[in-house]
Design a protein that fits this description.
Blueprint: H1 28-93, H2 110-127, H3 132-182, H4 187-204, H5 212-236, H6 240-250, H7 256-285, H8 289-296, H9 302-340, H10 349-352, H11 357-371, H12 380-392, H13 394-399, H14 411-425, H15 429-452, H16 464-488, H17 494-506, E1 508-511, E2 528-531, H18 542-554, H19 561-575
Antiparallel strand pairs: 1-2
Helix pairs in contact: 1-2, 1-3, 2-3, 3-4, 3-5, 4-5, 5-6, 5-7, 6-7, 7-9, 8-9, 9-11, 12-14, 12-15, 14-15, 15-17, 16-17, 16-19, 18-19
């Protein structure tokens, strides 16, 4: 604060001339007048200072109030803008349900919908502001956000409209092409559909942003694809002539890369048409397969000749399959008749005369066993031969008529073989492999083990006795593996099977000496030990044979050398 000096009168003596020095004293009047004047000046000065100080204080206070108001307005504006931004983020940009996730035709109304929702949201936020100044400032903010939102939504909607229109155009062209292809035998309809595709592309090209060159490219591609499809469909229906006419007429509208393919297809179609014609003539004339093949060899065109040969062989295979099925059905019907009444005379003569001598023999043997009340016993050389064929030559096995062996196969073995055959015929390789898996494993182990002894398992190289011995060995292996599985509750491993085979092959049976068991013939008469696989019915002691025959009769099984030897070896195998 400025300091106002207080006036104080001061008296100072000045040197006067010597000849002039007057003496004058202070009077009350003079002293009072001067004091009043000084006080007045002091009061005026103080009053001016006070007024100035008051003005300065009032101005500072007003400025502080203004600052606080600005601060409050800014906070309110920021809060309002945050609310609007939060709504925009959730409504527009949410990755799961935001407006930008809406695709296709559903996006077409988004601009108007979002503008209305934005207005509603902004109005509600503005209504919550407390002053006109805040509302006025918020209007500027909402205007800017509204413009930006419109831009984002219109961009998204425009892209969706563009894509939707492109998809619809493609669908229209595709449907028209399919209609043309389906009506390939109607040139008028084909022409209408091609014109429809051209018009659709040209109409929508300007909206899709296609320039003249792109539009022409799209039209050419559509027309080419349709013409190619029409030609290919005609070829697929063996309408080679119609396909050739389309190609000759519209070749100029087919794209270059498709022309070569169509020309090859037309050539193939022509070959097939001619091949069908000549094959029908050769097959119609009849003859054996060899005779028909010889006729086909006389065709000059190599491609047509190959096609004719393939058709002849296919037709022959089909006929064989039909004949085989007819034969199986007839033979099955005959066996069914015998199951009801074991009298071959009940079989219709028309069926009986169609059977081969072997088939008639099988039917008679089957009827005899049924008449005697004796169940069919499996002939194991036959059974294992068929199982080997199924495992190594499934094609031949699939074509075999198992009913030819019905009189040699027990019910269990016959059913097993027919199940395997059905799986192979149905190309159910997984089931066939499951059914043959155990046999293949055992067969391989037996084969490998016998090779070590210089013994073959090839049926074509074995005598009847050798085939019987091999079947007995396999049967013993089956019996032992089944027994082990029942005992342990586990499927025998390959190592288990190998041990069983080794044990059987190393085991022997003591047999009484006989002249036919001695080698050389001039040698002495003596008892000997023989391997399991070398035992014959003649080696079975008489008393033991009688016991075996009695056991077979008790079980209702036929009594013959085969069944006696089976039971004899089985008993000794178990004992070993």
């Amino acid at each position: 604060m400025p300091v106002v000096p207080i006036y104080k009168r001061q008296t100072q003596l000045e040197q006067l001339p010597q000849n002039v020095r007057l003496t004058a004293g202070e009077t009350p009047e003079s002293q009072g007048a001067l004091q009043a004047e000084g006080d007045a000046k002091i009061a005026g000065a103080l009053a001016g200072v006070g007024a100035k100080t008051a003005a300065i204080g009032e101005q500072g206070f007003s400025e502080e109030i203004a600052k606080e108001k600005d601060r409050a307005d800014n906070i309110a504006l920021m809060n309002a803008d945050t609310q609007l931004a939060r709504w925009e983020n959730e409504r527009v940009y949410d990755p799961n349900k935001g407006a930008l996730t809406i695709k296709g035709q559903a996006a077409f109304g988004l601009p108007e919908q979002l503008r209305d929702e934005f207005t509603t949201q902004a109005d509600a936020i503005e209504a919550g502001l407390s002053t006109d100044r805040q509302k006025q400032a918020f209007r500027r903010v909402r205007t800017e956000r509204g413009i930006n939102l419109d831009g984002v939504i219109w961009k998204h909607t425009s892209a969706e409209i563009q894509q939707y229109q492109a998809n619809e155009l493609q669908a229209s062209v595709d449907n028209s092409r399919n209609a043309a292809i389906a009506n390939s035998d109607d040139p008028r309809r084909v022409g209408i559909e091609i014109a429809k595709q051209t018009n659709a592309i040209q109409t929508h090209a300007k909206w899709l942003g296609f320039g003249p060159e792109e539009t022409a490219k799209q039209v050419t591609a559509a027309r080419s694809a349709t013409i190619v499809g029409v030609i290919e469909n005609a070829l697929a229906q063996d309408k080679t002539k119609a396909a050739q006419t389309y190609f000759d007429t519209l070749k100029g509208e087919i794209s270059g890369e498709a022309i070569v393919r169509i020309e090859k297809a037309l050539k193939e179609g022509s070959v097939r048409t001619e091949g069908q014609k000549q094959a029908d003539a050769i097959i119609g004339a009849g003859g054996t397969l060899s005779e028909m093949r010889e006729k086909a060899k006389g065709i000059q065109d190599a491609e047509v000749r190959d096609n004719v040969t393939q058709r002849i062989e296919h037709e022959w295979s089909v006929r064989e399959a039909i004949n085989r099925q007819d034969e199986e059905n007839a033979l099955k019907g005959a066996f069914n008749i015998l199951d009801k009444t074991p009298d071959i005379h009940k079989i219709p003569p028309t069926a009986w005369v169609s059977f081969t001598g072997a088939q008639r023999g099988a039917l008679m043997a089957y009827a005899d066993k049924l008449s005697a009340g004796t169940p069919v016993e499996t002939d194991y050389p036959t059974y294992y031969s068929l199982m080997t064929q199924a495992g190594k030559d499934p094609t031949t096995f699939a074509n075999a008529n198992l009913l030819n062996y019905r009189a040699k196969l027990g019910d269990t073995e016959f059913k097993q073989l027919t199940d395997i055959q059905l799986s192979i015929r149905n190309k159910d390789n997984a089931k066939a492999d499951r059914d043959l898996g155990d046999f293949r494993t055992k067969d391989q182990i037996v084969t490998d083990s016998l090779i070590k002894f210089g013994i073959t398992t090839d049926d074509s190289k074995l005598s009847t006795d050798q085939r019987r011995a091999l079947a007995e060995l396999r049967q013993l292996v089956d019996t032992r593996t089944t027994a082990q599985a029942n005992l342990t509750g586990k499927k025998p491993t390959g190592q288990d099977i190998q041990s069983i085979v080794d044990q059987i092959l190393s085991s022997s049976i003591d047999v009484k000496g006989s002249w036919w068991n001695i080698w050389p013939r001039s040698g002495p008469f003596f008892d000997q030990s023989k391997k399991f696989q070398d035992i014959t019915p003649a080696d079975i002691p008489g008393d033991e044979r009688q016991q075996i025959e009695a056991a077979l009769r008790r079980r209702g099984r036929p009594v013959n050398d085969t069944t006696v030897l089976d039971l004899y070896l089985d008993a000794h195998s178990r004992a070993k």
